[in-house]
């Protein structure tokens, strides 16, 4: 459809009448759900990914993302509204492109911008007037203006009149039964007011609530604040768990009682560590940026230190529990329940379970795992395959360690057939006492109401 007026007006009109073609770079946990929302809103979407395997699966109508059903992909492909491709030239057909690629940390905890830079260069090669480019990948404040904008301007395009550049942090929470891409508010910060206007219109077409902010730096910092807030509070409650253990107090009882206060307290719970692509990583983007400005982010560094040591705390719990029955970790059989980084998802990225398994094996334990969502996973070039959760498997284990509290697991069966359960998630608290001796993350006296608080 032909539209008259300025470049901005023509782009806004194309978004409004759904004649705009939307591009999404990176078809993973963030990009694919976003692409499907644009399809549902009536757009034609081009999904670009460097993985031929991912592209072929999607074009065959198969989703590799738990939160996107095969049927949704099949419908989008069948209606001709979604094309997955490894052909960068297809980006030239887009009116708007969202970048949703990984932003990992290097071994030195510095941001690895390789995927973002690769995406930015690909867009720059295909850029044209009337294009909106939005970076969604979590990163440090300044990335959009310092890395993305110059590459597009090098094509002779003026940001704010020829081309529109913004940052909008992804807020995907895999497995969340309530909040998904459409009903999670979307923060948008543009390089210029016109960029904010265009990016806001783009996301308003498929997201229920859009929250404009004054700059890309503000939007970049929003995501870092959200996950730093969580990381720091998880670090605090993990330290409280250690404090409770040393005092002989039940940490879960303390937290539940504190949570009865209707104001001034937000409930966080301890665990074996933190995982996923966001909480363990995002605070380090901010810490890194501040180091370049000669400022030390003390809260972030301390929380990271506490959280990263929780797997060691768990392994020591296992060792102490085995020692009480005159068994060494070396040679003991350990069954880890749950390797996904959180409940009821299939994502093992940065999962504390991986550290727990590694540390146990370093001490000489024979470790198997069961996870109803993760049949196998690859780490350090090796493929691990899970085992079935049977009565014999539970009886085989000298210790069962609950790392991820998947709801599909019958924990009553676990305590009935295992001999020792180290429970890092408090899943055994309200079960009937069984055969197993229960060792919680933090010990405390039983109130006589539950089975899972005795050490």
Provide keyphrases for this structure:
455 residues, alpha/beta, Rossmann fold, 2 domains, eight-stranded mixed beta sheet, five-stranded parallel beta sheet, 15 strands, 15% strand
Structure, explained:
The protein has helices at 7-16, 31-40, 52-59, 70-78, 114-126, 143-153, 193-204, 216-247, 251-258, 282-292, 298-308, 310-324, 352-362, 391-396, 411-417, and strands at 21-25, 44-48, 82-85, 96-99, 131-135, 163-167, 186-190, 210-213, 333-337, 366-370, 376-379, 382-385, 399-402, 420-423, 437-440. The protein has two domains: 7-214, Rossmann fold (3-Layer(aba) Sandwich); 251-440, NAD(P)-binding Rossmann-like Domain (Rossmann fold), CATH 3.40.50.720. The strands form three sheets. An eight-stranded mixed β-sheet has the order 3-2-1-4-5-6-7-8, with helices on both faces. The longest helix has 32 residues, at 216-247. The model is unreliable at 445-455 (pLDDT under 50). The chain is elongated and about 80 Å long. The protein has 455 residues and is of the alpha/beta class.
């Amino acid at each position: 459809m032909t539209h008259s007026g300025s470049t901005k007006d023509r782009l806004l009109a194309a978004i409004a009448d759904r004649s705009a073609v939307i591009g999404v770079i990176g078809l993973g946990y963030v990009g694919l759900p976003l692409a499907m929302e644009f399809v549902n809103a009536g757009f034609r979407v081009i999904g670009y990914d460097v993985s031929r395997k991912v592209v072929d699966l999607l074009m065959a109508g198969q989703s590799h993302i738990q939160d996107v059903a095969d049927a949704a992909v099949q419908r989008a492909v069948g209606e001709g509204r979604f094309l997955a491709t490894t052909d960068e030239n297809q980006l030239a057909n887009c009116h708007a492109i969202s970048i949703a690629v990984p932003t990992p940390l290097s071994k030195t905890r510095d941001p690895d911008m390789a995927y973002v830079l690769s995406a930015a260069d690909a867009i720059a090669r295909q850029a044209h007037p009337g294009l909106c480019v939005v970076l969604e990948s979590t990163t440090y404040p300044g990335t959009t203006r310092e890395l993305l904008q110059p590459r597009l301007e090098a094509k002779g395009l003026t940001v704010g009149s020829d081309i529109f550049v913004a940052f909008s942090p992804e807020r995907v929470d895999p497995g969340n039964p309530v909040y998904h891409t459409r009903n999670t508010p979307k923060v948008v910060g543009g390089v210029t007011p016109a960029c904010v206007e265009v990016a806001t219109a783009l996301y308003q077409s498929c997201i229920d609530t859009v929250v404009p902010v004054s700059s890309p730096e503000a939007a970049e910092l929003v995501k870092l604040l959200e996950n730093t807030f969580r990381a720091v509070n998880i670090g605090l409650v993990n330290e409280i768990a250690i404090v409770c253990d040393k005092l002989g107090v039940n940490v879960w009882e303390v937290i539940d009682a504190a949570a009865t206060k209707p104001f001034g307290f937000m409930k966080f719970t301890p665990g074996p560590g933190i995982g996923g692509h966001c909480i363990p990583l995002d605070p380090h983007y901010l810490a890194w940026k501040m180091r370049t400005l000669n400022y030390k982010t003390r809260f972030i560094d301390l929380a990271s230190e506490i959280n990263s040591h929780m797997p060691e705390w768990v392994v020591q719990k296992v060792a102490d529990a085995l020692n009480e029955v005159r068994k060494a970790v070396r040679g003991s059989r350990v069954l880890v329940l749950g390797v996904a980084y959180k409940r009821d998802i299939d994502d093992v990225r940065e999962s504390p379970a991986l550290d727990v398994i590694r540390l146990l094996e370093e001490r000489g334990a024979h470790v198997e795992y069961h996870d109803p969502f993760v049949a196998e996973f690859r780490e350090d070039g090796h493929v691990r395959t899970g085992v079935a959760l049977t009565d014999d498997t539970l009886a085989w284990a000298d210790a069962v360690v609950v790392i991820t509290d998947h709801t599909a697991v019958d924990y009553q069966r676990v305590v009935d057939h295992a001999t020792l359960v180290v429970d890092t998630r408090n899943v055994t608290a309200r079960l009937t006492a069984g055969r197993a001796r229960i060792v919680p993350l933090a010990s405390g006296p039983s109130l006589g109401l539950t089975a899972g608080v005795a050490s």
